[in-house]
Design brief:
heterodimer, A: mainly alpha, about 0% strand, globular, B: mainly alpha, 10 helices
Chain lengths: ~170, ~210
């Protein structure tokens, strides 16, 4: 692959690091697994980058790969001696000293999302990322009606969970 | 929490991440130059190894059959032939899996990709079920002309008992090994822990897909 294409890919990852991080965090509670998953998503994106079909939006292509890799991530093997230590993290969060109600609510929302079933989790992540129903339906391969129904049910569940927490 | 509040919360998270997330560009370059490899064991590699060993196994059995075609070794030949048939069926299933795996594209929609992946994963159960049909053959291959004439009544009873037991076991496994029985304890023992977890997860995802369609 040409240097220009390599640089383009670097830029793509830099611009979308948040998406990759959020998806990996939603599918892996364990810190080490999340590092592995982030790496795996980027490896798969890189492998597929040359065959990217421009008839799809770049974001659709990216979400599809990231979600497919995350959902099937449980097929994991032991690392070999040749693998570079995962201590070197591709996308990492710098120290965040802030705390308060906002952080607590973000943490709760993340927890609720992580507790959803794999496909519901994907739907909710895409919804929160402000993707249109059409985009979500294209990424997941279900009808827009199904997307709408599912989102409404999941939101209801989340609302209930938040209101339960607020009661205490 | 209302719709907008949820999205606002997520947006705040997004802003925070954009400020705090850092990219290790050098590590990313290493991925591009393939110095960093996938930690996932490709499913296809395992199946290719199984197909190669399977073909060698069947070829070896075929060699033995060809060089044993005498009436005195009839049990040996029939047992090996049956083993060859069962092994060939398993090889064919694995080859079909390899074709399906080669058609899987992570950039296809999530439901389609996961459906294919999970079906392939679950069909491992089918292969085990078929392979276990060979069980009775391991109690008959060594029977020869000399044994038939010299075996005592007690040993005959033992021999027939063992073959009957193994035949029933093979039939029972064939009828009961199914992903519908995944949650039974004996299935968990039959498939090692990690593989069983993967199978259960595959079953769950297929169920979720069914509910979405």
């Amino acid at each position: 692959m040409t240097k220009a294409k390599q640089d383009q890919f670097l830029l793509l990852i830099k611009e979308n690091k948040g998406i990759i991080y959020k998806i990996a965090k939603s599918y892996c509670k364990d810190e080490e697994d999340r590092k592995d998953l982030t790496q795996e998503i980027i490896i798969q994106l890189w492998r597929a980058y040359d065959k990217y079909d421009p008839s799809y939006k770049l974001s659709t292509w990216m979400y599809r790969i990231a979600l497919n890799v995350s959902i099937s991530f449980f097929r994991k093997s032991k690392k070999t001696a040749n693998d570079i230590s995962i201590d070197e993290e591709i996308i990492h969060l710098t120290d965040d000293p802030s705390s308060g109600e906002l952080e607590t609510n973000i943490h709760l929302l993340q927890q609720f999302i992580s507790g959803l079933k794999e496909l519901d989790r994907a739907i909710m992540l895409l919804y929160l990322e402000d993707r249109s129903y059409k985009d979500i339906s294209e990424i997941l391969g279900i009808t827009e009606t199904n997307v709408a129904t599912k989102i409404s049910r999941i939101k209801e569940k989340l609302k209930q969970k938040f209101s339960l927490i607020n009661q205490y | 929490m209302e719709e907008l509040a949820l999205k606002d919360l997520w947006q705040s998270y997004d802003h925070k991440l954009n400020k705090l997330l850092e990219i290790n560009s050098q590590y990313l370059r290493e991925i591009q130059t393939q110095k960093v490899r996938s930690t996932l064991r490709p499913v296809s590699t395992i199946k290719i190894i199984a197909v190669v060993f399977g073909i060698l196994w069947v070829a070896g059995l075929g060699f033995l059959v060809i060089h044993s075609l005498t009436i005195s070794k009839i049990f040996f030949v029939i047992s090996l032939l049956f083993n060859m048939i069962v092994s060939t069926i398993a090889i064919i299933i694995y080859v079909k899996h390899l074709v399906l795996i080669s058609q899987i594209n992570n950039s296809s929609d999530v439901v389609q990709t996961q459906s294919k992946l999970m079906k392939i994963k679950l069909s491992t159960v089918q292969v085990v079920r078929i392979l276990l049909l060979q069980l009775p053959m391991y109690t008959t291959w060594y029977i020869n002309e000399k044994m038939l004439s010299e075996l005592s009544t007690g040993m005959w009873i033992f021999q027939i008992g063992m073959t009957t037991l193994f035949t029933f076991a093979a039939i029972w496994f064939y009828r009961n090994i199914s992903y519908k029985n995944l949650h039974k304890k004996w299935m968990r023992i039959l498939f090692s822990g990690k593989e069983w977890t993967g199978l259960v997860q595959a079953e769950n995802i297929l169920e979720q897909i069914k509910n979405l369609e």
